[in-house]
Amino acid sequence: MAIEIKNVTYTYMKKTPYEKIALKDVSFTIPEKNFIAVAGHTGSGKSTLMQHLNGLIAPSYGQIIVDGIDVNSKGSAKLKARRSVGMVFQYPEQQLFEETIFADIAFGPKNFGLSETQIAERVKKAMAFVDLDYKQYKDLSPFSLSGGQMRRVAIAGIIALEPKYLVLDEPTAGLDPQAKRSLLRNIKKLYNEGKTTIIMVSHNMDDILELAGRVIVLNDGQILADGNPKDVFRQVNLLHKAGLEPPQLIQLLERIKTEVFDISVDKFNVDDAADAIYAEWRRRQKHAR
Amino acid sequence: MLDDIMIGQFFPADSLLHRIDARVKIIVLFIFIMAVFLCDTRADYIVLILLNIILMYISKIPISMYLKSLKPMLWIILFTFIIHLFGDAGEPIVKLWLFSATWNGLFEGTFITIRLFVLILMASILTFTTSPLVLTDALESLLNPFKIIGVPAHELAMMMTIALRFIPTLIGETDKIIKAQKSRGADFSSGNIVKRMSFVMPILIPLFVGAFRRADELALAMEARCYRGGQGRTRMKEMKLERLDFFVSVLVIIVVIVLIIFKIKGI
Ligand SMILES: Nc1ncnc2c1ncn2[C@@H]1O[C@H](COP(=O)(O)OP(=O)(O)OP(=O)(O)O)[C@@H](O)[C@H]1O
Ligand SMILES: [Mg+2]
What we know:
CATH class of the largest domain in chain A: Alpha Beta
Largest sheet of chain A: 6 strands, mixed
Bound molecules: adenosine-5'-triphosphate, magnesium ion
Helix content of chain A: 40-55%
Strand content of chain A: 15-25%
Strand content of chain B: under 5%
Structural class of chain B: mainly alpha
Number of helices of chain B: 11
Order of helices and strands of chain A: EEEHEEHEHHHHEHEHEEHHHH
Oligomer: heterodimer
Structural class of chain A: alpha/beta
Shape of chain A: globular
Shape of chain B: flat
Strand order of the largest sheet of chain B: 1-2
Order of helices and strands of chain B: HHHHHEEHHHHHH
Low-confidence stretches of chain A: none
Radius of gyration of chain B: 23 Å
Mean pLDDT of chain B: 84
CATH superfamily of the largest domain in chain A: P-loop containing nucleotide triphosphate hydrolases
Low-confidence stretches of chain B: none
Number of helices of chain A: 12
CATH architecture of the largest domain in chain A: 3-Layer(aba) Sandwich
Largest sheet of chain B: 2 strands, antiparallel
Distance between the termini of chain A: 62 Å
């Protein structure tokens, strides 16, 4: 069971002077129960790719296969395939519309045809997921909330669908550091429960390093790198080519390497890096004596 | 999904039409619209259609764009055609129940259809070859003389600029909201009409909320930059009539004279 992306090419505004090829022959597979990050500079095609996964955009060429079913095929099977992919948009707070937070989060589950009791249960769980107190918030208007809280309601609206594949397009963009950390912690927790496959678009290499088991780097609509974050982030030149900054720790080690003394840059946690720096420093001191 | 909307779209290119002063283009369009309504003989139509084709050709914009601009109006045009076909009195071609199509109606309908096509295409030529900003500047400049009788020329132009500026933004936003609600199980393509209508609110409300927020932000941003209306405002690029513009004007006058002669002579 997996999402297979096969030779997907997508062109916006086809056959107009504004024609723009957003994806070029992209192929990869997202196996079940993985945590995959997608990175790339602004306009590299990340959001476009994500919208293919549940059939919101049909590829100009190629196929998207979810659990063996083409999401753009004719017939009723595709609906189930599409619904197994939950999609949290970039800036999802703009899609709220109901009178109460409860009703807004319940919109999706209701459309999926769940019973009232199931819906109430799902909403409760989803609100707990995004750290919103059920009793306190359920009857408030979503428009009375702050931007960050609205974001949480919007994310809860997708979580309540309990999708098998959860796609998050830059979920932390514009959140304050604390809200960001708690959201990422909850995503990680959901992943650790072992039922959900997560595909997350992120600009933050440190987050990717911490959370994802695999990272796909897009550059101008093509896959530039695909692999374990540690292996990918070692290739600093490649990251720069994709317009990305390596994780902070690697940036620091890079600078020590070029400006102070020779040291290996592939350390991915603070302790290892500190040990390596200390060892090298000691060695030099001995030599100096 | 909403990529197809072509009305009011501008296509930058380096053609003769792009270089003509926007004020001249607006006046010419105005004259042609009047001409279209005064035309009623075959010769008139041939001149107009030829002119249209020539203009489309020298605009260096793919013909498919022009066809796309006709698309949204197609139903209205078809409706008009049918009304004429069955509505006009005359010698019947076929009889359908109470209604009969007439030869007279067929001709009238065809003429009306051509008329509407020509009108839309003319307007498209103007908007395709003129950037919205220049277009509103030109309107302001043309309306300036009417300030004396109290026409708020600058304010009207500014309103138009803002409206035009936000059309693509709102289309993009609508597209995004539709997709977001689809992801939450909203289904616009099946079920009965009541069910489908129930998905209109989930789109309209976020759209309006967003539009009001934008309007607020824009007002604030304009105020922060000390916008105080048109009084005493100067512009970076003054509009100037060039040789080309005079040349075009002369050409248009000739065409109009030809049409008038047709009219008088009754060709
Ligand atoms: N609706 C649209 N119409 C036309 N072109 C579009 C549209 N949406 C995106 N594009 C173009 O497609 C390319 C890829 O856009 P996309 O939104 O997928 O980028 P992204 O990687 O998500 O960027 P960001 O990091 O800014 O979110 C961009 O060059 C963009 O200009
Ligand atoms: Mg994006």
